[in-house]
Request: fold
Amino acid sequence: MDNAIKTVYETVIARDPNQPEFHQAVEEVLESLGPVISENPEYMEVVQSMVEAERVIQFRVPWYDDEGSLQVNRGYRVQFNSAIGPYKGGLRFHPSVNLSILKFLGFEQVFKNSLTGLPMGGGKGGSDFNPKGRSDSEVKRFCQSYMSELWRHIGADLDVPAGDIGVGGREIGYMFGMFRKLANEFTAGVLTGKGLSYGGSLIRPEATGYGLVYFAREMLSTKGKSFEGARVAISGSGNVAQFACEKVLDLGGKPVTMSDSGGYIYDESGIDREKLAWIMDLKNNKRGRIKEYADHFDGVDYTQSKPEPNHNELWATEVDVALPCATQNEVNEAEARMLVEGGVIAVAEGANMPCTPEAIEVFHENGILFGPGKASNAGGVATSGLEMSQNSLRMSWTREEVDQKLESIMINIHKNAFDTAEKYGMPGNYVAGANIAGFLKVAEATMAQGVL
Ligand code: NDP
Ligand code: 2IT
Reply:
């Protein structure tokens, strides 16, 4: 790392020593920026300012459970950067949520949103609320209480939240209802990921997973390869994993694994459309566990997660393509080596930061195609941007129109990351390419506006 950049990194650590995920995300970006700063030393001011969030909001979220007992959670919204558009990014409801995780996600979102080419700044929010095992009424009361504070901090031209882990169509619906009541106006563009009957966009539920596979297809094609006949390991079984699986099937690939925090299933014969529909019903309606797949279908292995795993055996599966779609740091160095030994040729991140820096190094050293999340999973927020456009136009586009726009955005992001890496002397390094390309647009806008 260049000395001036290193000083910025050290300041970040000294200021918030207990935020390891945030440090990790910042370090990965700063490591890429050396050649840009040599070329444009004035951009050092942008680097200095952009590691500090513009605003962080933290609040109390009280609600009553079904037994009538008071529960108190902590709510947050990190408004990271609005140089190129309103803050935009998801809300995560998971017991692990804290400021380190939300700041890493908000920071990543700034570059990701810039890469989409759409006018969106970066933000992230959520709560340490654990939706697991909670009734529908409890989830509704929680969402309403959360929005009873958040509503005063968001707006269609200010900050536009959406879903992330633990926040899907149901939760967005409850939060939109509360916003509408408190604001006393129907502002569709204040949240994305809405239902179709009240301003949602076709393809938004599918977008992150579909976009991920479009991106991975582009990476494979640089080596003359494709998804046709490829064995694919997918982790997670939520929104991103489900639609990544669907698009892999569309392109002729064979998904063989899926997981949740309890463990993973390995289906040698492949997760076909019928089995995927069963998983979607299990996860989205019954809210069950992936283990039930192994109980229901023949010839499927289920491996339970270990309490403190050094490695998750899912990544020892012999596959051509790996799509980690669960959570941060789910692929470490040992797991990356298992994937390489199993013959993987491409890894694309569906989740945010699922691969540790050491894992990424293993992929790069072994010539594995590696797509970083801020490029490869940008299809979700890109389609949120398309939902905002439709809301502003008071129109809705067809499924085909939105899917075509999503596909061309993913092709452009791939090309931009690929070409930028080459231009700055790091051919094939999509991490550097995505970080630099995402940074340049925000840097130009920040300088033009006087580094406020
Ligand atoms: P969901 O809540 O729909 O699904 C999350 C999945 O990941 C579940 O299978 C969950 O298992 C698993 N998971 C979550 N946390 C852990 C953990 N600590 N250990 C093991 N497994 C875990 O979320 P999404 O599919 O929306 O999000 C998945 C990833 O994709 C996240 O990193 C998110 O930030 C990222 N992402 C999401 C986008 C979107 O549009 N939704 C856009 C871009 C990125 P369990 O149910 O057991 O917890
Ligand atoms: O990480 C992400 O990009 C998301 N969770 C989607 C954000 C959005 O605003 O659609």
